[in-house]
From TrEMBL:
<protein>
    <recommendedName>
        <fullName>SET domain-containing protein</fullName>
    </recommendedName>
</protein>
<feature type="domain" description="SET">
    <location>
        <begin position="24"/>
        <end position="144"/>
    </location>
</feature>
<dbReference type="InterPro" id="IPR001214">
    <property type="entry name" value="SET_dom"/>
</dbReference>
<dbReference type="InterPro" id="IPR046341">
    <property type="entry name" value="SET_dom_sf"/>
</dbReference>
<dbReference type="Pfam" id="PF00856">
    <property type="entry name" value="SET"/>
</dbReference>
Amino acid sequence: MAIEKSPETKEPPAPESLPLARFPHLKLVFDTPKGRGVFATTPIPSGTTIDISPVLLLTPQENTTHIEKTSLYHYTYNWPLPSPTSNKPSTTTTQAVVLGLGSMFNHSAAHQNVGWTRDLEREVVVYTALRDVAEGEELCISYGGRLTFVDVEAEAEREGVEGPEEVLGRIEVDG
Ligand SMILES: C[S@@+](CC[C@H](N)C(=O)[O-])C[C@H]1O[C@@H](n2cnc3c(N)ncnc32)[C@H](O)[C@@H]1O
């Protein structure tokens, strides 16, 4: 007869599924200065889960031999390489392709309104509103400090480009 563990000592069953969540009132805008971007079509309260995006883990070799040479390189996230010998994530990183909406969030250093966390066990990225987001705002994350492109926001700040309000103000004064 098989010996059953008592309910107290039973280990929790391995999760077989993960409920997904996506904030429904979003739109993809095609012609922003950053390319395509995700915008809110209603206000989003702080703490709302914006999306849970599964990832495709690449091996470091796949990345260096193939992906780094393609445009997909601009859509990958650093990801701790799962360790074959321990449950702890290793300190070596590989790259992960984010499947779904996560790959459409643009970068903003100064105006990021969405935070993201890696769920290493389930291999998903969870995106959450960092603050209340107004209707019409673009949803932006931080890509970190090492960018592979020229940040249009930083560029605009360096060149002292005027915002729409400043231009309107000048037109009124002159008129
Ligand atoms: C993960 S994709 C984001 C979606 C992308 N805009 C698109 O149309 O597919 C990353 C790319 O978006 C663009 N991008 C994101 N944030 C940007 C920024 N702050 N300034 C300029 N380009 C940006 C860059 O071309 C970058 O390689």
